[in-house]
Amino acid sequence: MSNKKINPSDLKNLHVDTLGVRAGVRRTEFNEHSEAMFLTSSFCFDTAEDAAEGFANAEKGFIYSRFTNPTVAMFQDRLAALEGGEACIATSSGMSAIMTVAMAHLQAGDHVICSRSVFGATIQLFSVILGKFGIETTYVDMSDLGAWKAAVKPNTKLFFLETPSNPLTEVADIAAIAKIAKAAGAIYAVDNCFCTPALQKPLELGADVVIHSATKYLDGQGRVLGGAIVGSNEFVMGKVFPYVRTAGPTLSAFNAWVILKGLETLSLRLEKQSESALHLAQWLEQQPAVERVYHPGLKSHPQYEIAQRQQKMGGAILSFTLKGGKKAAWKLINGTKLLSITANLGDTRTTITHPATTTHVRVSEEARLAAGITDGLVRIAVGLENIEDIKNDLLPGLTD
Fold it and tell me: Most exposed of 12, 21, 35, 59 (fewest Cβ within 10 Å)?
């Protein structure tokens, strides 16, 4: 029986759609077609000598599923190929991926520059948790290059950017910020959760590290939690892997297998969902009850030109402000029958949420308002339903 294997050098010649299906496959002696799931805590050795060699070179084989597992390795290899990175380490969630990068790279007394418009839990992680250990974070307007430059200190070690941002879909110039980070001698990490490599390649634009909440679009069906870190071998295997081996923010083999299969339809899903999201955003702009709509594919978006340059499409997330504030926002959300009221996103099912009282509730009111997250803001993550059904579900809440 044949056991074909694509050489890593051949991956550079393949498109994202193909990589999502073919990259990272590791077949066993049974030559299975679908990827195998290795639900085991540990792996055996033939001799004591083999065990000693394995533990001495843990990154080269499979020892213990806290840090090495064949199914997880397949997911890591596939995502690295999709992002164009040299290596990838998977984690138990998106937040654990951010925490892992911070703990692997930073130490007490270091300084972080972070875009102001990020997921609420990310702010809590940098300000509250890392702050307790003497790591300082400065938040800047993500689109203000001057602010990034002005925030640099001698001890700045990490630039952290989320683009498009959550929930206002603000877009930052990845390449321009990369130059500032390089001049500062800092590692530059970009959260690519909203776009994924199907729509955006931060590493090609100068980022050092790409971070994912694999819970979102990489899985794509709201089934499991997961996270990932992609970058150079030097950073990922030299800094991140030793931390994960010891601290254990591990992705389970089952979750890795689910997300691995999700990657097979990533491009198809994002293309369809992005088309529907742009259609919905354009429709919402015409509704009298709506004050403003945020989506990178709209010409009214303040960073439309940047999005056109660095993203394949605008993405599946949009947000909009209702004229009636929180009362109008809750009325709209409560009036839906089809859309799922949940803060998660990246699902095949459209979700709707009120950021000020959910995803960003732990952020101070002052910080929320500074980030543009008002009480009238609603966020929608468009799924795979027919767009007319989504519009019809929203329409009653947009009219008196």
Answer: 12
